[in-house]
Amino acid sequence: MGFFDKKYCDVCGEKIGLLGNRKLENGNLCKDCAAKLSPFFSERKSSTVEEIKEQLAYREENRKELERFQATRIIGERMKVMVDEAGKRFVVTSSSDLLKANPDIINLSDVISCNLDLDVEDTEIMRKDSQGKEVSYNPPRFCYSYNFNIEIGVRNPWFTQIRFRLNPSDVEIVDEQTGGGFGGVGRLTSNRRQSMVHPEYNADYRKYQRMSDEIIAVLLNQPMPASVLADQMMDGPGMVNKILQTGAGMLAGGMMQGGNMMQNRNMMQGGNVMQNGNVMQNGNMMQNGNMMQGGNVMQNGNMMQNGNMMQNGNMAQSGNWTCSCGMTNTGRFCQNCGAQKPEAIRYRCDKCGWEPADPAHPPKFCPQCGDPFDGGDRTN
Length: 380
Known about the structure:
about 375 residues, alpha+beta, twelve-stranded antiparallel sheet, four-stranded antiparallel sheet
């Protein structure tokens, strides 16, 4: 066959244009079929027609599976790692239309390795002398360019490595003595040796370093680095997703505040629930500093039961009263000193109508509306 003879795709059967042929080991492939192959596949020329057909079938099944893919964590800017945390799988793509781009779905269990390949290049910064010639500074000054390349080793029948650049453009850092003229000005020494350069002072460098750390931790199921957690705490929408790991946010409809949980507008403190400003302890309600137990109020270490006061382990029965001299009496006058039984004073908030569990011993302020208790709140 001559160079200009018509060729047909051995996969789809369509005619191949003049510049559209993609050679296979034992046939030809049109550019449209070639575009459907995995972007991480690099062995086309050594593949047979049957192997290409098999991969295209796999790619069609991958597209169908993408309809069920739910990205709950996205890391990156232009090129992104999208993770379906519930499905324990991920894709790497620069497209926002997953069905159109059809990125390969990789199970997290098929990740063999993941690491950062940091590419560093330096370029000497020159100056012009009095004669207009470019000469070196003394000492020499340099611009350093950094590229963050992620390498992921995977188990897949069509490829074994995914490699991509995380930063869309070079991270450039120049000698601080040089001043402006370059993007991303950071801090470094005037010495050319890499061991003397401090790129961590550059904001862009730190950003892509954190992204790299997060990708590695997620794909290898490792603990998240502290720098990534701290960055997520400052990220509003991201904080909601990460809050369970940091202890400061929403949890099952409850809000974490200072390590305490808000549930149904009630505050958990030390495992106890605040309700209406009162603390539940071991299932018992604290009201105005007094403990409710089984519906009874503890006051100053004494228990009110059915309206009767327990004092020192003894029950003050209905109608009984204790005189200031210490004698317990049943009549209107003390049988020891003759003092008259004091009239019981009862209180109820005149603003909201709230009554204390012990009406004779109100708090200083109403826990419902904040109004102070005074003579105007007496009911007798």
